[in-house]
Each structure stands twice: as structure tokens, then as C-alpha cells.
């Protein structure tokens, strides 16, 4: 469904650490195989989170891109290990990280000879409880003035609310984001993780059309 709507990268988690050690933790290598097979079937590169330097070699065999999650943004040993590969790295901003912190984490990867880093704004800790995190849309143009690296936004994790994902996704693109990371699930109530922050496939398809129109309009204005 997301491929038909125009998505060009597929993200899935094979390792999923949770607050409780007894909650669903992902399918590990079996999940990586499923993700790789699905990506090949729909001609989409796949990205998955790496949590442990010991997993870098295994994930490298299956995924087209590493994701460094918010909780590992300053795991400098892990950043160094993925930097030694030439595989693209999706680096998410930590929940309490400044923009300079994010850029210094990117430097750990770049310093190892891997230039393929994508920065991701996914919300920082705020005091308001109406959303999961504070979506710092101003981080997008700020990063653009401070770095040559591409920047994407993740309104799913930033807000934790499907009703706010469309407007925040559009705001991110309007601010200059190079891409949008959105959770999608056909039955969110049955999802083993992240269901409450996922769009339904038809909702995603409608949003993808809006994002494409906005992106095209901005390109026309820029030219």
C-alpha cells in the first residue's frame, strides 16, 4: 500500500527494545530476512535500526540503510562502527539533544569515511503532555544553514498522534525537509508496537498526495 502511494524507502524494526523486558522485542534476524524479502518484492530499499555494535555486520547483510535511534544518538561506539561501513545512516535526534549535539554525532560517522548520513528531527522532550514530544520544526531550516546533510522529519514519533501527523508532515516539508518518515499499519489496534501513532494505508495515500503537491509547488517557486 505504501509503495503504491509513492513511498520510496521501507522502514521496519527487527530489534525493538521496550520499557518492559517482557514486552515484544522484535524478530531479530528473522525479521531482517522478512524486511529484505519485502523490499525486494516491492523494489524498495529498506532501513532498520541497529542497537548494538555487535549487530552491525549482520544488519549490513540485509538492510540498505542503518537507522540510529534517538536513544542511541550519542552511543559513540555504535556511531563509529556504522561509520566504518559505506552504507547510508539515518541518524535520529535524541530526545534531549541540541542541534549541535546531533551534528557532532553525525561527525562521528563522517569522520570514519562514511559521508552518507541523513539527519532526522523526531521531536524533543517538552513540558506539554498533549503530544508525545515537541516537534521542533525550526530544527529543519536551522540544520540546513549549518550542514550540507539531508534532513527528514518524523511526525509519527514526534507527536504520537495520528490526527496531528498530516499537518506536522506538511509543516516539515514547508520548512525544507528532504523527506518524511511516517508509521503506517493496516490494523493499528493489533500492532505489536507503535500502533497508536500509525496512519491507516488510505490516510497515508491521501497525505502522500498532499506532500507531493506541496513539494512540487515549493520547487516551482524556488525556480
Structure, explained:
By secondary structure, this protein is an alpha/beta fold. The protein is built from 8 helices and 7 strands; from the N terminus they run βαβαβαβαβαβααβα. The chain has helices at residues 28-41, 56-62, 76-83, 99-110, 139-146, 155-159, 165-174, 201-222; strands at 10-11, 46-49, 65-68, 89-92, 117-121, 151-153, 179-180. It has a 7-stranded parallel sheet with strand order 1-2-3-4-5-6-7. Helix 2 (56-62) links the parallel strand 2 and strand 3. The mean pLDDT is 96.
Write a brief caption for the model.
With 223 residues, the chain is an alpha/beta fold. The chain is built from 8 helices and 7 strands; from the N terminus they run E-H-E-H-E-H-E-H-E-H-E-H-H-E-H. Helix 3 packs across helix 4 and helix 7 runs parallel beside helix 8.
Taking pLDDT < 50 over at least 5 consecutive residues as the criterion, the unreliable ranges are none
Task: Provide a count of the helices.
Answer: 8
Assembly form of the protein: single chain
Helix content: 25-40%
Spatial strand arrangement across the major sheet = 1-2-3-4-5-6-7
Mean pLDDT: 96
Shape: globular
If you compute it from the alpha carbons, what radius of gyration comes out, rounded to the nearest whole angstrom? 17 Å
Order of helices and strands: EHEHEHEHEHEHHEH
Strand % is 5-15%
> SS-based structural class?
alpha/beta
Amino acid at each position: 500500500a505504501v509503495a503504491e502511494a509513492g513511498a520510496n524507502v521501507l522502514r521496519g524494526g527487527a530489534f525493538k527494545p521496550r520499557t518492559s523486558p517482557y514486552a515484544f522485542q522484535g524478530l531479530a534476524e528473522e525479521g531482517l530476512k522478512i524486511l529484505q524479502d519485502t523490499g525486494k518484492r516491492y523494489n524498495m530499499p529498506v532501513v532498520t535500526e541497529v542497537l548494538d555494535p555487535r549487530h552491525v555486520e549482520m544488519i549490513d547483510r540485509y538492510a540498505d540503510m542503518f537507522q540510529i535511534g534517538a536513544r542511541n544518538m550519542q552511543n559513540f561506539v555504535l556511531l563509529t562502527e556504522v561509520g566504518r561501513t559505506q552504507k547510508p545512516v539515518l541518524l535520529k535526534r535524541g530526545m534531549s539533544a541540541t542541534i549541535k549535539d546531533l551534528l557532532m554525532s553525525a561527525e562521528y560517522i563522517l569522520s570514519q569515511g562514511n559521508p552518507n548520513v541523513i539527519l532526522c528531527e523526531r521531536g524533543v522532550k517538552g513540558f506539554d503532555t498533549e503530544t508525545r514530544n515537541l516537534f521542533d520544526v525550526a530544527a529543519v531550516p536551522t540544520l540546513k544553514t549549518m550542514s550540507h546533510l539531508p534532513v527528514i522529519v518524523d511526525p509519527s514519533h514526534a507527536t504520537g498522534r495520528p490526527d496531528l501527523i498530516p499537518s506536522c508532515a506538511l509543516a516539515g516539508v514547508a520548512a525544507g525537509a528532504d523527506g518524511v518518515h511516517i508509521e503506517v499499519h493496516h490494523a493499528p489496534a493489533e500492532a505489536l508496537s507503535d500502533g497508536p501513532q500509525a496512519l491507516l494505508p488510505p490516510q497515508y495515500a491521501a497525505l502522500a498526495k498532499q506532500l507531493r503537491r506541496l513539494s512540487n509547488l515549493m520547487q516551482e517557486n524556488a525556480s
